[in-house]
Design goal:
This protein has 363 residues and is an alpha/beta fold. An 8-stranded mixed beta sheet has the order 3-2-1-4-5-6-14-15, with helices on both faces. The protein starts with a strand and ends with a helix. Helices cover 36% and strands 18% of the residues.
């Protein structure tokens, strides 16, 4: 099979669709791999590394797409890449199509693209194997992001996460007790913050309580509990997620008005549209904005700035699925693996993910 890895063109995207180690494994299986020159630079991989692994360097995105049956990306295809699509290609990426312009989905349908979304590959028990590593990384990054933007020079309150003897630590509210929320809570607790975790799933709350030895307060995510905790939070983290669907709006503008000035919101669900009425995507070049006196951090690809770690982490999990697609062909691989089936959003000119279909129907 011919496999392509283009440069990621999203702003501040330093991750790459495959490592040289992955190229080496694919070429040993007899596949031809085309890597756009410079694609791995942000993650610390030179063109020479890919050549040594058996890959072939090409110099334009057009050449990558025109040669490739299988394209491996980090972020989904962007508007500027739509004209490069080749009919009946398979493209693997973190697509998040429910929160992206509908013209992207329509272009995939028109070209009979098979869009495999890493974020919706799901095992029978509900586990999301490829989404888990970047979610863990995002959760562990959140406290360091918070520390930066709570400083005076970031526009924040000028407070220290841990406090000091005689000075209380910060109050953190985490909505969503999945991988992001749990890792954020765990890291904040380790730094000395006071943490409240909210979720609608009691089993998740019980798991958080057990794993963190009762060091966090847990609440069911009813609207009145969210409103009550948002009002006193120094840092609010929103991390609610439904595979393939748009993130639910959990924090309204009216709730926001009850927060203390210069508090900080980190909306990790922004890649799925965001959990706040006031959220909008930002970039690493300009990561925060102020709305109702509250700082909003809403960077969809927040883990891209730890590109080498994230690239290795998510590809460790994605590799079995990439190998199946390459060695068996798209249709055979999908038919043989129910987890991979759940990762397919668009196939043979049809939307096959129910959550995505619902989003387009309602728009």
């Amino acid at each position: 099979m011919d496999i392509g890895i283009p440069i990621e063109i999203r702003p501040n995207e330093y991750r790459v669709g495959l490592t040289p180690q992955g190229i080496n494994l694919l070429t040993k299986d007899g596949h031809r791999c085309y890597i756009q020159s410079g694609a791995g630079k942000g993650a610390g991989f030179d063109d020479a590394d890919y050549v040594q692994a058996g890959g072939r360097i090409v110099y334009t995105a057009e050449e990558v797409y025109s040669r490739s049956d299988l394209v491996l990306k980090v972020g989904g295809v962007r508007r500027a890449e739509l004209d490069l699509l080749r009919d009946e290609q398979t493209i693997c990426a973190f697509w998040h199509l429910a929160a992206r312009p509908h013209e992207i989905t329509h272009a995939l349908l028109e070209h009979n693209i098979t869009a495999v979304a890493y974020e919706t590959i799901q095992c029978d028990n509900g586990f999301l194997p490829v989404l888990r590593p970047p979610s863990q990384i995002a959760g562990r990054m959140i406290p360091q992001v918070a520390a930066r933007w709570l400083q005076n020079d970031g526009g924040g309150k000028g407070i220290l996460i841990s406090g000091l003897p005689g000075i209380p630590p910060i109050d953190v509210c985490v909505i969503g007790a999945g991988e992001v929320g749990f890792n954020a809570a765990k890291t904040f607790v380790a730094l000395g913050a006071q943490v409240i975790v909210l979720d609608k799933d009691l089993n998740r709350l019980q798991k958080v309580d057990q794993l963190l030895n009762g060091r966090v307060v847990t609440l069911v995510a009813y609207d009145f509990n969210i409103a009550r905790t948002v009002a006193f939070a120094d840092v609010l983290v929103t991390a609610a997620h439904e595979p393939g669907a748009r993130a639910p709006i959990l924090v309204t503008r009216e709730m926001l008005k009850t927060m203390r000035p210069r508090s900080l919101i980190i909306d990790v669900s922004i890649d799925q549209g965001g959990c706040l009425e006031t959220s909008r995507p930002t970039t690493h070049d300009s990561p925060v904005f102020v709305e109702e006196g509250i700082l909003h951090y809403c960077v969809p690809n927040m883990t891209s700035v730890v590109a080498r770690t994230t690239t290795h982490a998510y590809l460790n999990a994605a590799w079995p699925f990439i190998q199946q697609l390459a060695n068996q062909g798209t249709q055979t691989a999908i038919d043989a693996d129910t987890a991979l089936q759940r990762g397919v959003l668009v196939h043979k000119g049809e939307i096959v993910n129910q959550n995505l279909a619902m989003v387009l129907k309602e728009s």
